[in-house]
């Protein structure tokens, strides 16, 4: 009996999702094909029907909601509307959220896998670069600046969001990690000009500070 339409695509997606979880948790070198296939509910022998090699699979794992419409974030309560005009601050808060911080297996691979990518071949680096470029493009749409400065600002916000989460995850002190994430959110929102309301007042911690920005970054977006 033939498989239903879409079966092959669904199986491939399961393999990619299994690999993403395992790579995020253990790193590329420490995960075997048998583990990946077992995580997808399949046997080792079926792997080569879908991918040429583990490296070939790795390049496909390097996706995120910026580039992969089927990528499903498991960060509970965190949603990003890529079609929204204010997608920039949504991305910042989602990326540096508590949920993303705690959910290592379902991380954006730019946070979980940069060291692996740096040691990998051109295909993996290009895949990583594609995701980063897509993130910058999404952030640019919400910026009021024009030209080169707008792009530079988006790149800076993207790097701050990714790097902030990477550093936060290296810390043993959870309070310090949370303080760092909150500080990165505050600075990223300031860089994007996303902390001002229509009257031009800075909004911080639910308070309005006419024309002034408090440097204290405490609790900027505590769904984060």
Describe, in short, the structure shown.
The protein has 224 residues and is an all-alpha fold. It has helices spanning 7-26, 33-39, 54-61, 87-95, 98-102, 109-112, 114-118, 122-140, 147-169, 174-192, and strands at 202-204, 207-209.
The quaternary organization reads as single chain
Written as H for each helix and E for each strand, in order along the chain, the element string is HHHHHHHHHHEE
Question: How many structurally independent domains?
Answer: 2
> How is the main sheet built?
2 strands, antiparallel
CATH topology tier name of the largest domain:
Tetracycline Repressor, domain 2
CATH architecture of the largest domain: Orthogonal Bundle
Relevant CATH superfamily of the largest domain: Tetracycline Repressor, domain 2
Distance between the termini: 49 Å
Key descriptive features of the protein:
224 residues, Arc Repressor Mutant, subunit A, Tetracycline Repressor, domain 2, 10 helices, disordered C terminus
